[in-house]
Design brief:
elongated; alpha+beta; seven-stranded mixed sheet; five-stranded antiparallel sheet; 30% strand
């Protein structure tokens, strides 16, 4: 599958996660590629920013900076903004504001988020069990907390996300050239920020046999979709379910469709040609008969002097 969206941000990681009967995959990176793009769809080139400030002493490589209360026995120091965020995530805490963290201010993370002008293209393959489930792409770090799948969404109150996206191609199983998938080249334009877009797909297994007797096992699917805007304050209080992101749910049908390629035989072709030729002669005979009878009638009237 291949999906293009402005979902990914410079310092806000977007997670690709899958959930199915009895299993979960969090932050899938195997066989999945995330490509940063600018708003024109070209590869994103990050502008270099000055990190040295006049009068500021260079950082001590052996320094040990604060984790802002999230220190553990195995994590005593947080020298970067990402390490502070990881420490809070491991604790199951939400980071209220990146602007309050010295490491984030020093690295210019907040300024980069405000000026973020980029998109992301996600392409790859997800391997899941053949049971009902879903996979989704959502902003923020994802992690397990109290046996629950959780996303760090604190930053979205300050930096809301635009979920406009295009699904260039989405297939279940091997790609079949003659197959038309309903979500290929599908574009969703979000009119509001922090939108949740849900796709519900019904998968029908397919057995495709080629002319050379090669068999391809793939799937067809139908889809319905729905979108809604997420109020993060209500979601935090439990008054609204869901979170911003793109969710694709799938359910597998117990039926199977069989499709096979056949080449028409020469006799079938010859029969078709004969039918066409016979049809042409028949129509030509009808037209000739109508013209002849009309001409004969006109000649009789002319002989009887009934034509002025």
């Amino acid at each position: 599958s291949e999906i293009s969206s402005p979902l990914n941000s410079l310092n806000i990681s977007s997670g690709i996660n899958a959930e199915y009967g009895g299993g979960q995959q969090v932050d899938v990176v195997q066989d999945v590629q995330k490509i940063r793009l600018n708003l024109q769809g070209s590869p994103y080139v990050e502008e270099e920013t000055a990190v040295a400030v006049v009068g500021e002493e260079p950082l001590d490589p052996n320094r040990c900076e604060s984790c802002y209360g999230a220190e553990t026995d195995t994590r005593k120091c947080c020298n970067t903004c990402e390490e502070v965020r990881n420490a809070y995530r491991d604790r199951g805490w939400g980071l209220e504001s990146l602007a309050a963290i010295d490491q984030c201010r020093r690295e210019g993370v907040v300024g980069k988020l405000h000026g973020n002008k980029e998109m992301c293209r996600v392409k790859g393959v997800l391997k899941v069990s053949k049971v009902t489930g879903n996979f989704h792409i959502s902003p923020g770090k994802s992690f397990q907390h109290n046996h629950a799948h959780v996303h760090d969404m604190k930053f979205l109150q300050e930096f809301p996300i635009n979920l406009t996206h295009t699904i260039n191609r989405l297939t279940y199983g091997e790609f079949v050239p003659t197959q038309e998938n309903p979500l290929d080249n599908h574009t969703f334009v979000a009119t509001q920020l922090n939108t949740m877009r849900q796709y519900y797909t019904q998968i029908v297994p397919m057995r495709y046999q080629k002319l050379n007797s090669e068999v391809v096992l793939s799937n067809q699917y139908s889809v319905t979709y729905h979108s809604k805007t997420i109020d993060l304050a209500k979601a935090a209080r439990g008054e609204q379910s869901g979170l911003p992101g793109m969710f694709i749910s799938y359910e597998i049908s117990p039926l199977m469709v069989e499709v096979s390629e056949h080449r028409r035989s020469f006799t079938h072709f010859l029969t078709g040609v004969c039918a066409i030729v016979g049809g042409v002669f028949t129509v030509a005979g009808i037209i000739d008969s109508m013209v002849y009878n009309s001409y004969r009638a006109f000649q009789k009237k002319l002989q009887l002097g009934k034509v002025n």
